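Notes from hallway chat w/ T.B., transcribed later so I don't forget. T.B. wanted the structure written out for a chain they're using in a teaching module, and asked if we could keep both sequence and structure tokens in one place. Agreed to drop them here.
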Amino acid sequence: MQKLYKATRKNKKIFNPHKSNYSKRKINHATPYKWLALATVAVSPKKKIFIHNGKKYYYTISFPYCMKGYFYKNKIIHIYGKKSLEHSLKKFYCSGYIYTFDKNRFSGKFRKKCKNMEVSFNDEIPLKIEYIEDPVKEMRKLGVTFEFVDITKE
């Protein structure tokens, strides 16, 4: 069985097609790459802010080679933060949930601009919901490499 994954930091029960307004809710996204779904389990935007020498900065990530469509093979994530890679990973990532779907039953469509890496959906119910205590540890098990950029160095 081919699988698709979606991750969130809170188990919001967002996959409930029995609610009357479900189809009007925002579209969600899933990917065939578990590591990529895990990369989205981040702290709330307010907690990503820090002040350094009177300037406001944000812990953030990027996927090099994304525009070329290579990042799903390379599994490289750039971490933008301060002090060190480990410090910034702890500030950016938090525990969360990963939802697993059966791709064959999936009702969404692949988005062309994402080169078959992401699908949009409205009404699929997951096969499994799993709590992830440490998404960084899980991504490393899946072969993800993190590269650190200290954004406080000018």
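Follow-up for T.B.: Residues 3-150 form one domain. Might be a good example for the class.
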